[in-house]
Amino acid sequence: MPADSVSVTGWGRTAPTTARLVRPRTYGEAAAAVRECGARGGIARGLGRAYGDAAQNAGGAVLDMTGLDRIHAVDAGGGTVLCDAGVSLHRLMEVLLPLGWFVPVTPGTRYVTVGGAIGADIHGKNHHVSGSFSRHVLSFELLTADGEIRTVGRGTPLFDATAGGMGLTGVILTATVRLQPVESALVSVDTERATDLDDLMARLTTGDHRYRYSVAWIDLLARGARTGRSVLTRGDHAPLDALPPRARRHPLAFRPSRLPAAPAFVPEGLLGRTTVGLFNELWYRKAPRVRRGELQPIPAFFHPLDGVPHWNRVYGRGGFVQYQFVVGHGREETLRRIVRRISERGCPSFLAVLKRFGEGDPGWLSFPVPGWTLALDIPANLPGLGAFLDELDEEVAGAGGRVYLAKDARLRPELLAAMYPRLGAFRSLRRELDPRGVFTSDLSRRLGL
Fold first, then answer.
1. What pLDDT score does 272 carry?
2. Which residues, in sequence order, are CB contacts of 3 under 8 Å at separation 6+?
3. What is the pTM of this model?
């Protein structure tokens, strides 16, 4: 099977490494690629939206699974889909929305594969209601290191190790996923401003139960009495009777718009404190104090950045780090302290969001636990960033929280066990299932997974 030696990086465009990129088109080719990985092993890769080094493998093989992209069956009555792991959520929306179904969980981009969604156990704006993606996966087929294709069902150790296991238990080939019924391709959205972090948390705590989807953009450059000021957007799929007459003609039409791509070269320092501070001020002020029932298309509500191809280029050649952590309920003071520290340090992040997580799922390395999660993008060349994030890691781990491995690019391995209590079980199963270390990645080597 042809293979190219290429430089591979995550969406954050930091720490690229060189690997042999293999593009299987059949299950047999995928099995052959696993057998021929070599001493440095291999790792499956989807559309490359993991921010850090989870889908990189320096000196080894990377299996580009996007060629396995068939939708095998849709049960339009029962609401399930059987598809290859290389199918994107975008493609599922194109096929399923006209039938009155939507993916059960979507992150901030629809350009992730089903295999990647399981491997990272992705979450979205509806975690407080619907949990992570793996909660809606009925079964999947997994190509393991011994060349066997196993059908893996819910409630088994292999399922729980694979959901959130970052591709380290094997290559997911197909999955059967339970879907969300919808009457339209529009979302009814309520928007409101929160004056500070405490105001925001109070609104989320008292009101989230009324909404399927909830997320807050947070201004991490605001200080003093304005620290943590936010714009909160919450909503649900709009029913047919809420649509204006014109929209009822084609209620399930899915028409994403696209803007010109970000330029290939962006000057370093474009997203500094001054420009991001100005953006944040304008974004907060233009948001309505309160607006109810605005109808937004699915792409605008869930995936606004997908309309700008290669938006990650705006951070320049140095790339960016996305830092996401969660701390449990009862640890609000830790969240307040971290937000204050980020604000006082002046970290220029214009993509910062706060959400509430509901009950976690059984994946041993699945990220969500009940509590508060904050995600922010920071230019990687910010002076002293590594040491500053190390300090935040210590606070998060000390509060019983964790960072998200699908976005991580720099966590110190000694903190991992404190953050993920099932790490020992995961390592043990990996040794039993893959004693030669066939499946490996830059992430797994860096953290000793």
1. 80
2. 20, 21, 22, 61
3. 0.96
